[in-house]
Amino acid sequence: MYAIIGGTGVYELNTSLENIEVNTEYGSVEVDFLEIESGEKIYFLSRHGKKHSKPPHLVNYRANIMALNILGVKYIYSTAAVGSMNEKYEPGDLVIIDDFIDFTKSRIMTFYEGKSGVKHVDMSEPYCSNLISIFLKKSMNSNVEIKGSAIYVTTEGPRFETKAEINMYKNFGDVVGMTSVPEVVLAKELGMCYATIGIITNWCTGFKNEIKFHDIENSMNMNKEKLTQLFLEIFKNDNIDQESCHCNNAVMNL
Ligand code: HPA
Q1: Cα→Cα distances 111→53, 120, 230, Å
Q2: Rounded to the nearest whole angstrom, what is the distance from the C-alpha of residue 147 to the centroid of ligand 1?
Q3: Which phi and psi (to 5°) does residue 142 adopt?
Q4: Which fold has domain 2-253?
Q5: Can you tell me the mean pLDDT for 91-95?
Q6: Is the peptide bond before 158 cis (omega within 30 degrees of 0)?
Q7: Over the stretch 159-184, which tens digit does the pLDDT of each residue have?
Q8: What's the mean pLDDT in 203-208?
C-alpha cells in the first residue's frame, strides 16, 4: 500500500476519494484513499488535518505515521512547504530533500520508549534512496522540474526564523521547514520508505527582502497538482520494492 502526505495545501485533490478513520494508540486519524487496478490502495493524509487546523509543533506525527502503518502502507511520498536559504533555489522551485538537521524542541521523536528494549534508528539515509531515484527518473519525462537536492533544516515553529537564525542555518542546509522531523524519523522506525519533495514557497527571513506570505499559497497551488499526479503515476505503474534500500532494517537493538 502507498501513501501521499501533503504539506500545506496538498489536500484538495478533486478525484472522488473514500474516507476512513483509523484509531491508533496515539489518537485517531482521518485519511482518504483510492483503489488502483492492482487492488492496492493509495492513501492521502493531510499532515495538518483536513482544515489545516494543526500548527507544525502540534501535528500528531506519531498518530499519522502509525495510522498509515496500520493500513499496511510501505511507501510514502510527501510534500513540504519550505523557505530557501540557498541562492540556487527560488520561490516556486522544487527540490528533493536528501538529508535533515533537527532544530525542533518539543516534539516526541520516537515510537520506542523502552517497553521493548532500547532501540536506535539509523539515520545515514533518512529519505529513501530508491523512492528518490524512481521519482527523479519519472520527473524527467514530465512537467515536474526538480532543481536539485537540499538539506532540510527543521525548526520548531510556528514562528518564522530571525535573521540571525537564518544566518546560522544557511551554513548547515539549503531550506527551512517545520515538519520533516519527526515525520521522516517515525516512518523509518516502522520500516517504511519515505521521500519528500520540498516546494520552495519563500526566501527565508532577511535573505532577500521580507517573507511574502501570499507567495506561499501561489507556489503551493502551482505545484501541488502536478506533484500529486506524478506520485499517483509512480504508484500505479512502477514496481517498487525494498530490495535496494535500507529502510526496512534501520532499527538497531542495543
Ligand atoms: N521557515 C520555516 N518554515 C517554512 C518557511 C520558512 O521560511 N517557509 C515555509 N515553511
Answers
A1: 24, 11, 31
A2: 18
A3: -135, -175
A4: Rossmann fold (3.40.50)
A5: 93
A6: yes
A7: 999 999 999 999 999 999 999 999 99
A8: 88
Burial-class residue 78 by CB neighbours within 10 Å (0-12, 13-18, 19+).
buried
Domain boundaries, the chain: 2-253
Q: How many residues does the chain have?
A: 254
Cα 160 to averaged position of ligand 1 atoms, centre (Å): 6
Q: How far apart, in whole angstroms, are the C-alpha atoms of residue 251 and residue 191?
A: 8
- Å from CA of 84 to ligand 1 middle: 8
| Alpha carbons within 13 A on the beta-carbon side of 119 | 19
Task: Determine which residue's CA is closest to atom 5 belonging to ligand 1.
Answer: 83
Q: Is the pLDDT of residue 52 over 70?
A: no
Distances (CA, A) of 152 to 27, 184, 252: 28, 11, 24
Find the mean pLDDT for residues 47-70.
90
**pLDDT value at residue 10:** 45
Write out the three cell numbers for 197.
519533495
Q: Which residue has the cell 532543481?
A: 147
Is ligand 1 within 6 A of the CB of residue 220?
no
Residues 245 and 188 sit within 8 Å (Cβ to Cβ):
no
The answer to whether the CB of 204 is under 6 A from ligand 1 is: yes
CA distance 64 to 34: 18
Gap from CA of 82 to ligand 1 centroid (Å): 5
Q: How far is the CA of 204 from the centre of ligand 1 (A)?
A: 7
* Ligand 1 within 6 A of CB of 161: yes
Q: Does the C-beta of 9 come closer than 6 Å to ligand 1?
A: no
Q: How confident is the model at residue 144 (pLDDT cuts 50, 70, 90)?
A: very high
Asked if pLDDT for residue 114 goes beyond 50, the answer is yes
